[in-house]
User: Fold this.
Amino acid sequence: MRERVSTDGAASILHADLDSFYASVEQRDDPRLRGRPVVVGGGVVLAASYEAKAFGIRTPMGGSAALRLCPHAVVVPPRFDAYTEASRAVFDVFHDTTPLVEGISIDEAFLDVGGLRRISGTPVEIGRRLRHRVAAEVGLPITVGIARTKFLAKVASAVAKPDGLLEVAPHAELEFLHPLPVERLWGVGTVTAAKLHDSGVHTVGDIADMGHEMLGSVVGRSAGAHLYALSLARDPRPVHVGKRRHSIGSQRAIGRGPHAMSDLEATVVAIVDRLGRRLRHANRVCRTLVLRLRFDDFTRATRSHTLDEATASTQIIMVGARRLLADASDLLTERGCTLIGISLANLDDADSVQLALPFGEQEKHRETTSGAQVTLDTSALDAAVDGLRERFGAGALTRGVLLGRADHGEVPKLPD
Ligand SMILES: [Mg+2]
Assistant:
């Protein structure tokens, strides 16, 4: 793992990009492929492992051309279901990191972490933790670029690949950018690159020196203006949060067992505690709980439970999630659990539920716990806990079952 960071603080946009995504999933799931040149897709190369890229294999490239470059490459057919599942798990980590996530494709996203310093630490700390979580929970390498703008964050991750982290501090942007080849800029394909090279322009610094008028005469007025702005690190686009999600989830890797049932329960409590807050923060309610399990041999199982009515109450979700876990206890002891995940699905706006219920009704829920009828007034408690955590940081309060555990998933922070 390679890292280059500074102590300069204003860079708070992360570009997180999985490394050779499809090929990494194949190497994760089949240990025989690790350390070997792997090509996904026979007719056309859809992905190549870094070992294969070292032989010059690129995407997209014909399969036979790839094998001429590297005759001993292992060619495997794509497994899109596995990639979709891995992508979902990685995006769960993204959304668990910050509410401001802009997905770019199945394996990359921008994350704005600027407002999280008090709760989660500096952008570099957040980026490190994100990389660690994706490795531990999904088993994949991911590279993170950190900068003041989306453009620079994306360039930073490209430069830091594979399996790296690179921060471009605001005072060092041009120093970072100008030595890079023009091909690093968005919008510079082979045609534009050839035109620039013909005019003696090879680096981003050359573009900045040329000025936008001269540049316009080489590549056209609008492309020239675009490239000139990028060469001076001007990129005002904010992280844009896309369509609303249909589910939110989070998971924890727990290492190889054996694990006591009480440890597994504590993990579920920590996950639900966090998801409940995210749900309320987004002003949403859920009806379906999904428990996801991964075992020693990387096989998976899911169990789900749909509640009688939609809720945003941590307590009600907790009861449902613990019951799902208890129902799966045979599976857990037989097969050795290495990862637990919870997703909240069937999401709706909290407001629409309040309209559908008589006034005050949403504050009281009945849940059956080991045969006893318990009436809980949980929304006031949730609101109080959320408020304290917002003021004093996520570690200000910890559920009793999690006391003394290092794995409750928060960075302890003292009040300022
Ligand atoms: Mg990628």
User: Anything to note?
Assistant: Residues 354-376, 407-416 have pLDDT under 50 and may be disordered.
